[in-house]
Amino acid sequence: MSGIDDLDLLLAGMSPRLNDGCYVWASVPSIPMGVTPVATIVEDEGISIVVDEATATNLRLDAEYRSAWITLEVHSSLAAVGLTAAFSTALADAGISCNVVAGAKHDHLFVPYEERDRALQVLAEVIG
């Protein structure tokens, strides 16, 4: 299945789920041995990784942006139009920053850790 691309169906089925823990971002020259990041992206300056805060602390990484990880449970198509705009606009209007990572099946939102409950409330309002 290639995922849903109808915006109304996507919004109705978002089902935001808060993952346990606190996650941070760090830039590293290579992924540390034995670490499985939640997300990675290769940039000119290094590899950006998202890992749980305890891992970052243990590895003494220069971590930033303490965040909560929210998964939108709806199977969204990578070609869908409007989903990111809908939830990011709602979060922005509430003054909540959001970093989005799209997986092959779901969108993953990283919001300030201290704002996680409020972010979930905002997302629930988007669903209606």
Topology:
Layout: H1 7-12, E1 16-18, E2 23-28, E3 39-43, E4 46-52, H2 53-58, E5 64-72, H3 83-93, E6 99-102, E7 107-112, H4 116-127
Antiparallel strand pairs: 1-5, 2-4, 2-5, 3-4, 5-7, 6-7
Helix pairs in contact: 3-4
Q: Provide a count of the helices.
A: 4
CATH level-1 class: Alpha Beta
- How many E-type strands? 7
Assign a percent range to the helix content: 25-40%
Poorly predicted runs are none
From the alpha carbons, calculate the radius of gyration and give it in angstroms: 15 Å
Mean of residue pLDDT? 94
Structural domain tally: 1
CATH homologous superfamily label: VC0802-like
What's this, in brief?
This protein has 128 residues and is an alpha+beta fold.
Detailed description of the structure:
The protein has 128 residues and is α+β, with helices and mostly antiparallel strands. The chain has one domain (7-127): VC0802-like, CATH 3.30.2130.10. The protein is 27% helix and 31% strand. It contains four helices and seven strands, in the order αββββαβαββα. It has helices spanning 7-12, 53-58, 83-93, 116-127; strands spanning 16-18, 23-28, 39-43, 46-52, 64-72, 99-102, 107-112. Strands 1, 2, 3, 4, 5, 6 and 7 form a seven-stranded antiparallel β-sheet that branches. A hairpin with a 2-residue loop joins strand 3 (39-43) and strand 4 (46-52). Helix 3 crosses helix 4. The mean pLDDT is 94.
Task: Name some characteristics of this structure.
alpha+beta; 7-stranded antiparallel beta sheet; DUF2241
